[in-house]
Amino acid sequence: MLAPAKLGIAAVSALLVIALFSPLLVFLMEAQGNPEEYMYVKAAARPLNRTHVEVTVAVLYSGTVPLRDFAVTINEREVAVGDVSRGNNTRTVVLGVGDLGSGPLRITALSYRVAGLYYIKAYMG
Amino acid sequence: MRGVRRTLLSIIKKVLGGVLTGLAYYLVYVVLLPQVLSAVFRAPLGVGYAAPFIALFVALGTAESVLRSHPVSIPLRVISKLLGALILYVVLNGGRLEMEVTGGGAVLRTELDVSPLLHAVILLSLLYGSMDAFSYYTARDST
Fold first, then answer.
1. Quick check: B41 and A28 CB within 8 A?
2. Are A91 and A57 in contact (CB under 8 A)?
3. What is the pTM of this model?
4. Cβ A122 vs Cβ A110: under 8 Å
5. Of A54, B44, B47, B131, whose Cβ has the fewest other Cβ atoms within 10 Å?
6. What is the mean pLDDT of residues A82-94?
């Protein structure tokens, strides 16, 4: 009675762990297989008036695992892009002139959740 | 005389079985898992020191084996699973890993949170451990 139950729990546990781990493993394998073209992020700003600028963030993603809560830190300001899937993902936000600081636009960090589960934050430079 | 020899052989067999079980736990939790996870996450992972873990795993394995048909084997089995889970938690730094990834010609510092996976592995191993603890009843009924 106990041995089949233990075997059943072990088998179900192994399947659950594989199912939970597979999105991260696929993401890491795809990213390491093609690191140069896997993800490309760019940001551009256009002045709207004296006080506000329109910032467009484009994320070109060639992976198959969806990324949730994608956010780009431009200078010191975090801009939420939302969910990112394969292809071109663009988000436009309006910010105050002072929000991005005085220097040129510079992406300093990217953060997202792989398949909505595993939080990743990458710091540039 | 033959009876004493048989008892002695049975004790030696149980102790050896326990030592091997302890070493197997040590190999899985302290050696194999950190190496596999280091290769997957490309981050240096490990507990740094091995002797206390070998000693504890071997001691627990031996105690489990020798006391298989005694009720004290129930907590011992749970403790060995808890120890494995604790080592996994320490090795993975509570699920928060830091690594350096090369992308676009630059080296990026990256933080990765694998705590959902870690929590699932720990909870499932505790579930299995609590089921395994009741092997005492099987061992008792077979003696």
1. yes
2. yes
3. 0.78
4. yes
5. B44
6. 91
Domain range list for chain B: 2-142
Angle between helices A2-33 and B33-41 (to 10 degrees): 30
Contacting residues for A52 by C-beta, under 8 A, at least 6 apart? A94, A95, A96, A97
ipTM: 0.82
Give residue A8's domain range: 2-123
What is the count of structural domains for chain A? 1
H/E run at residue B3: helix B2-26
Q: Which residues of B touch A125 (CB under 8 A)?
A: 106
Does residue B36 contact residue B91 with C-beta atoms inside 8 Å?
no
- CB-count exposure of residue B75 (10 Å: 0-12, 13-18, 19+): exposed
According to the model, what pLDDT value does residue B106 have? 67
Q: Which residue has the tokens 């988000």?
A: A91
Q: Which residues pair with B95 in a beta bridge?
A: none
What is the mean predicted confidence (pLDDT) over B110-121? 89
Question: CA A108 to CA A77: how far, in whole Å?
Answer: 9
Closest chain A C-alpha to B104 CA, distance in angstroms: 5
The residue among A60 and B85 whose pLDDT is bigger is A60
A36, pLDDT greater than 80 = no
Whether B121 shows a pLDDT value over 90: the answer reads: no
Nearest-CA distance B1 → chain A (Å): 36
Measured between CA atoms, the residue of chain A closest to residue B111 is: A121
